[in-house]
Specification:
The two termini are about 30 Å apart. About 40% of the residues lie in helices and about 20% in strands. With about 220 residues, it is α/β, with parallel strands linked by helices. The chain has 8 helices and 7 strands. The protein is globular. The longest helix has 15 residues, at about 190-205. Helix 5 (about 100-115) links the parallel strand 2 (about 95-100) and strand 3 (about 120-125). Helix 2 (about 35-45) packs antiparallel against helix 5.
Length: about 220
């Protein structure tokens, strides 16, 4: 089962609570409005982590740069990343967002409405991502954003390769593995999976990647 990330206390650079002044400035560069602050507060109440403001701004940028019309999000949460994505997408574009938690999606639905997005702008699907993704159309999406348990990264990358059009963008949240990605002594299952996934994407002929040290780390890769 792929589930949205549970809240973890992180203190390393790139984890969203860095003491590096430059990273702090980057995180606060784009301000969040009341809707996003509310969604973030609700996520904290239910024990969910969210993309940081800096990572959210990067998602909006990637959606806008790709003129995204169709986006898949794995891990709805309370709608923080969804709002950022929708604000970068084309007018009329549709966000397909998947999560196993009905209650979280109920909150997200309200947040999307409060952000001014009509119901037709979102397709909210409750279920396991690995059950839902095979039902989505090949080559029909401009961006796939994965904000779920790292153990599911390999399967999500395989699915994204099928779902994305050439030039579409895959984004993995949590690509710094809580700051452990560069520590060879870190051999826990999550870190090893993240490390192997980012290496496989870097070495693949199917992707043009970059690792962005915002929030918990964003691995962004364009499908060739």
């Amino acid at each position: 089962m792929l589930a949205a990330r549970r809240c973890l206390i992180a203190t390393v650079a790139g984890s969203g609570s860095s003491t590096n002044p430059a990273l702090q400035f980057a995180e606060s560069y784009v301000l969040e409005d009341l809707v996003l602050r509310t969604a973030r507060s609700l996520a904290h109440e239910v024990g969910l982590d969210t993309v940081t403001p800096g990572a959210g701004a990067a998602l909006r940028l990637l959606a806008a740069a790709g003129n995204a019309r169709a986006v898949v999000e794995i891990g709805t949460g309370t709608g923080v990343s969804g709002v950022w994505l929708l604000r970068g997408m084309r007018v009329g574009g549709v966000l397909t967002t998947i999560d196993v938690e009905v209650e979280h999606q109920r909150i997200a639905r309200r947040i999307f409405a409060e952000a001014g997005f009509v119901a037709g702008r979102t397709r909210i699907i409750t279920g396991r991502a690995l059950d839902v993704l095979p039902r989505l159309a090949d080559g029909a999406y401009d961006l796939v954003f994965v904000d779920a348990e790292a153990t599911g990264f390999p399967a999500c990358v395989d699915a994204a390769l099928r779902l994305l059009r050439p030039g579409g963008v895959l984004v993995l949240n949590g690509a710094l593995a809580g700051g452990r990605i560069g520590d060879p002594a870190a051999r826990d299952a999550e870190t090893v999976t993240v490390r192997e996934t980012v290496k496989a994407i870097r070495e693949s002929e199917h992707w043009i990647p970059a690792l962005l040290p915002l929030g918990h780390g964003l691995l962004a890769a364009v499908r060739c």
